[in-house]
Each structure stands twice: as structure tokens, then as C-alpha cells.
Design a protein that fits this description.
The complex is a heterodimer.
Chain A: E1 7-16, E2 22-28, E3 31-32, E4 37-41, H1 48-54, E5 65-73, E6 76-77, H2 85-91, E7 92-95, H3 106-117, H4 122-135, H5 139-142, H6 155-168, E8 173-177, H7 185-198, E9 203-207, H8 211-217, E10 220-225, E11 228-234, H9 235-240, H10 245-252, H11 261-270
Parallel strand pairs in A: 4-9, 4-10, 7-8, 8-9
Antiparallel strand pairs in A: 1-2, 1-3, 1-5, 5-6, 10-11
Helix pairs in contact in A: 3-4, 3-6, 4-6
Chain B: H1 3-43, H2 65-94, H3 100-115, H4 118-131, H5 138-162, H6 166-174, H7 179-189, H8 191-207, H9 210-213, H10 233-241, H11 246-278
Classes of the chains: A alpha/beta, B mainly alpha.
The complex binds adenosine-5'-triphosphate and magnesium ion.
Protein name (chain A): Phosphate transport system ATP-binding protein
Pfam family, one (chain A): ABC_tran
GO biological process, one term (chain A): phosphate ion transmembrane transport
Chain lengths: ~270, ~280
């Protein structure tokens, strides 16, 4: 069972733009082990989100994006598979970098996916919604206003709601793109706990800018640079002894400055 | 004084003046209609509720209920038809079924259609009627009015769908939805804009005379069937205003009053609906 949800890419290329001039992924061949938490790190604009989206065929939606190469989920080459793409996307959950509320109530945001994929009873749905919201530490804040528009929530709340919504369809793989970027340390910790707990049954791939988070969570690390996957391997190896100079600079930072982008934001706003 | 402040002062004065001018004219038109029309309606409210006698336009007895009913009988179905077509085409243009280039070309055409004088639609439908050896009727006018409304509503639907963020689309697809399920959700997110478009189209159809002029028949009978002639309020107002009888000319204000109120109620209603639906729309953080 363990290998059915391992993901690997083979010579993955991704081009944006009408005349495919803008290459965002260059011959990326990486492996994401099953039931482990892999973090993708790298400087802004290096292709982390692009890589994540190619793993559940979200680029198919864009007119001007082209994917070449292979992505295997287990033994299944998803770009050539006969499985309908919606089924694939249900199996491979994705939480986007930008917190997004569906134009409906908080409750229905979480219930939307399960309702599309099955006919859960009202009671099952209620339980599922509560369980999903608890997993992301949002239940207590919203339990009294489940029917309020989700758009009224704060950015950090919508971020947690987005994660809960993806978890509610019970995917096998969870792709998360900077899901704690707008969260306070406590909510962040709660989401991290959830991800760690999910690891038992799921394969988790997360993009993050926070090196301490990588240190806490990652079993496996992929380091991207300008569309190349420069390094990959078990977290201990990549973090402690990166083989390339780029990765070394990024991971250890120049005087720790690159470690936390939020730190530099704070500096800028107070200065 | 500093040149920049003089500049600012001049521009501000100009802006104020033009605002006064525009609002002044509006107040004059609306105020006059409401005042004169209100007077007629207060003295004789029955004009709005009784059918016209055979000699109504020649100063005879009766009211103009036929035109009020005709307006609704023509414009309501026309709006429904135009809305259904506009939503279908809007969804198609914004969906993943259609190339961006094609969508852009169609949108240019829609703008051209929007700017086309209503009389052209009227003449177009009239030409069709002559070809088909048919005659002016309620249904022909409905067709002409929906032609007039379609580009307006379609542009609104398209813009509303376009303004739905790409992130929302991605988020929905990522949950494993089909294209159809995604479209339904996007339409829901775009609903405030769609409603605004429908109301715009409805108001335009209600207020327009030219598209109906040659196509509806324009008698003074009550509308009696799809293939029988009918009249709308703008046509009636034109007939009343050009009448030789002062009492009939006075009635034109009453008809205008009714038309204005209808549009006003519509706009208020649309604001209400739009507010209800936009409750769920995410603002940009
Ligand atoms: N829709 C798009 N159209 C064209 N170019 C794009 C598009 N999305 C991303 N790119 C380009 O692809 C490259 C990689 O973008 P990507 O979003 O994957 O970066 P990222 O590593 O996630 O950055 P960040 O950490 O800032 O989120 C960038 O150069 C970006 O400009
Ligand atoms: Mg990104």
C-alpha cells in the first residue's frame, strides 16, 4: 500500500506563455516518498508553486501553460492515465498559496467537496465539517456562525478554511502551498500538528518559506532554484550537508536573514 | 499664487459647474414628469387602470392600461430570452471550451451591437416579417427587444465572469469538480454582476421605443395574443405627445410617470438583489 501514493516526476518541463518562452520548470526529476512530509524550498519565483500544481494537473486549466515529461502517482502516469482528471484531483488535494473562500457560507465551503463526490447524509456532513474545521484549529472560532459568508473571515481564517475544505474530500496526497503564511504561531502550530498527524495515512508535500518549519516538519526536502530541482533527499542530508553552494547559502542564509521573510517584512514596516 | 493651485481651482470649478448642469437637467426632467404626471394621476387615477376607448387618442374616453400591459407582455419575455442566451454565451466565452482570441472578437462585436441604434433592430425584424409575409405582433416585438437587450446583458455576464478570480477557479477545480460544476460555481460568484446586467437590459427594453415601433403594431387595443398587435409605453407616450388634443397630451405625462416609476422600482429591486448575493463574494484582501 505504501507505494501507491509515492509521487515522482521525470524530466518535467513547464512552459508559460503563448510562445513557451518562459520556462518555469527545467527537467525536474524528483521523488516524493509515500507517507512522508516533503517540503519544497527555494527563493521566490523559483517554481515551487508551479511544481506543486503540475502534480494534480492544475496547469491543464491554463491556456498558455504546457507540461512536458511525466508525473507518476504510484505506478500511474497521471498525464497519460485514463482516470478522469476530476477524480485524480480529488485524490490529490491542493491548497493554493492564496487563501480563497468559495462564494457561500463557512459550512458549505467545507461541505462543497464531499457533496460533489458523494451523497453524505446531513449528519455525516455535519460531523465531517466539524472534524475538518477542528483539524485546522478553526472550529471554535466559527462554530457559532457556520452559516455566515466565508468571505467575511479574516485572511488567516480563510487560509485555515481552505485547508479544511481540501481535507474534507479525504485526499490521499495533500499538496499545500505556504498554508501557514498568514497564521499566528499558535494556529500555525496547530496546522503543523494536523499535517504531522495526516502523515500516517497521507503523502504530504508542502511549500514553505520558513526554515524553522522545514526543520520541524520535513522528512524529505526538495530545493528548487530557477526552475531546477538542485537538491533533494532526506531532510537531514539536505539541511545539514547541502551539496551545492546555492542551497547552502539559502539554507543557512547570509547571517540568518534569508531564513524568515516575515522577519524582513517586520523590519521594513517598523523602519 | 502658485500656478498649481490656480490650476486645481479652475478644474474644480469646472467640475462643479458641469455637475450642477447635469444634475439640474435631470432634476428638471424628472421633476416635471413627476409633477405633471402626478397631477393627472391624482385627478384621474383611472387612466392607468382602464382600457382605452376606440377614440382614446382623439380625446375619447378610457386610459392607457393597454400600453402598460403591452410593455410587460413584450419586455418580460424578451428579457428572459435575452438573459438565457446571454448567460449561455457568456459562460461559453469565459469557459475553457473557447479560445481567448475568439472571445475577444465576439466581445468587440457585442460592443458594436450594443452601440447599434434600436431602430436598426426594429427595421431588421420588420424586414424578416415582410420576408415571412407576416405582420407586426407582440411576438415580433418581443424578438426585436430581446435582440436589443442581448448584447447588453451578454457584456455584463462576460465582465462579471471575467472578474471572478483565477484563484477561485483553481481552488474549485482542485477539489475535483468537473467543468460543469466549476462553471456553476463561477456563475454563482458572478451573480451580482449578472443581476446588474439583467436589470440594465430590462430597463433598456422597457424604455425603448424604436425597436418596437415597426414591430409591435402599435394600435390602441388591449394585447390579446402573441400574433396580435400590441403597444408599449414609450410608443404610447410618442402617440400621446403628438396628439392634437391637450387632454391626451397631458396623459403623456401620466404615462411617463408610470414608466419612470417602473424603472425606479426595478433599479431599487436590483440593488437589493445584488446586495443579497454579493454578501458571499470575497473582497480582495
Ligand atoms: N500563470 C503564469 N503565467 C506566466 N508565468 C508564470 C505564471 N505563473 C508563474 N509564472 C512564472 O513562473 C515562475 C515560477 O513561478 P512560481 O509561482 O512557481 O514561483 P514560486 O516558487 O511559487 O514563488 P513564490 O515563493 O513567490 O510563491 C516565475 O518566474 C513566474 O513569473
Ligand atoms: Mg508560490
Amino acid at each position: 500500500m505504501s507505494d501507491t501514493s509515492a509521487i515522482r516526476t521525470e524530466n518535467l518541463n513547464l512552459f508559460y506563455g503563448r510562445d513557451k518562452t518562459n520556462q518555469a520548470l527545467k527537467q525536474v526529476s524528483v521523488r516524493f516518498p509515500a507517507n512522508q512530509l516533503t517540503t519544497i524550498i527555494g527563493p521566490s519565483g523559483c517554481g515551487k508553486s508551479s511544481l506543486l500544481k503540475s502534480l494534480n494537473r492544475l496547469h491543464d486549466l491554463k491556456l498558455h501553460a504546457r507540461v512536458e515529461g511525466e508525473v507518476y502517482v504510484g505506478q500511474d502516469p497521471i498525464y497519460r492515465s485514463r482516470e478522469p482528471v476530476p477524480d485524480l484531483r480529488r485524490r490529490i488535494g491542493y491548497v493554493s498559496q492564496k487563501p480563497t473562500a468559495l462564494p457561500m457560507s463557512i459550512y458549505r465551503n467545507v461541505a462543497y467537496g464531499p457533496k460533489i463526490h458523494g451523497r453524505p447524509s446531513r449528519q455525516e456532513l455535519d460531523e465531517l465539517v466539524e472534524r475538518s474545521l477542528r483539524k485546522v484549529n478553526l472550529w471554535d472560532e466559527v462554530k457559532d456562525r457556520l452559516n455566515a459568508p466565508a468571505a467575511d473571515l479574516s485572511v488567516g481564517q480563510i487560509q485555515r478554511l481552505s485547508l479544511a475544505r481540501s481535507l474534507a474530500v479525504e485526499p490521499e496526497v495533500v499538496l499545500c502551498d505556504e498554508v501557514t503564511s498568514a497564521l499566528d504561531p499558535i494556529s500555525s502550530e496547530r496546522v503543523e500538528e494536523t499535517l504531522l498527524a495526516l502523515k500516517q495515512d497521507y503523502t504530504i508535500i508542502m511549500v514553505t518559506h520558513l526554515m524553522p518549519q522545514v526543520q520541524r516538519l520535513a522528512d524529505h526536502v526538495v530545493f528548487m532554484y530557477l526552475g531546477d530541482a538542485l537538491e533533494q533527499g532526506p531532510a537531514s542530508e539536505v539541511l545539514d550537508a547541502p551539496s551545492s553552494e546555492r542551497a547552502r547559502d539559502f539554507i543557512h542564509g547570509h547571517g540568518g536573514g534569508a531564513k524568515s521573510p516575515s522577519g524582513s517584512v517586520r523590519l521594513a514596516s517598523s523602519g | 499664487m502658485n500656478r498649481r493651485y490656480v490650476e486645481q481651482y479652475l478644474i474644480e470649478t469646472l467640475i462643479r459647474l458641469s455637475a450642477v448642469l447635469v444634475v439640474g437637467v435631470l432634476v428638471l426632467i424628472i421633476g416635471m414628469t413627476l409633477y405633471k404626471g402626478g397631477q393627472v394621476l391624482i385627478n384621474q387615477p383611472s387612466v392607468a387602470f382602464t382600457a382605452p376607448g376606440p377614440l382614446y387618442l382623439l380625446g375619447g374616453s378610457g386610459g392607457f392600461l393597454h400600453a402598460i400591459l403591452g410593455s410587460f407582455a413584450i419586455v418580460l419575455p424578451a428579457t428572459v430570452i435575452a438573459t438565457v442566451l446571454a448567460i449561455a454565451s457568456g459562460l461559453y466565452l469565459q469557459s475553457d471550451y473557447c479560445s481567448e482570441r475568439f472571445a475577444r472578437a465576439v466581445n468587440v462585436l457585442l460592443y458594436v451591437l450594443w452601440g447599434t441604434p434600436a431602430i436598426v433592430y426594429g427595421v431588421f425584424v420588420l424586414t424578416l416579417l415582410i420576408m415571412l409575409e407576416s405582420r407586426s405582433s407582440l411576438i415580433a416585438a418581443t424578438f426585436a427587444v430581446s435582440l436589443l437587450q442581448f448584447p447588453i446583458i451578454a457584456r455584463f455576464v462576460d465582465e462579471a465572469l471575467k472578474s471572478v478570480s483565477a484563484d477561485l477557479k483553481e481552488t474549485v477545480y482542485a477539489l475535483g469538480t468537473t467543468r460543469f460544476e466549476t462553471l456553476r460555481l463561477l456563475l454563482r460568484a458572478a451573480l451580482p454582476g449578472v443581476v446588474a446586467g439583467v436589470i440594465m437590459g430590462f430597463a433598456r427594453g422597457l424604455g425603448d421605443g424604436a425597436a418596437v415601433l415597426f414591430t409591435a403594431g402599435g394600435g390602441i387595443e388591449m394585447p390579446s395574443g402573441l400574433n396580435d398587435p400590441a403597444t408599449t409605453l414609450p410608443i404610447l407616450i410618442f402617440q400621446q405627445a403628438s396628439s392634437a388634443y391637450p387632454s391626451v397630451r397631458e396623459d403623456a405625462y401620466a404615462a411617463a410617470f408610470v414608466l419612470m416609476m417602473l424603472v425606479l422600482v426595478l433599479v431599487a429591486f436590483s440593488k437589493f438583489i445584488a446586495r443579497r448575493f454579493s454578501r458571499f463574494a470575497q473582497e480582495d484582501h
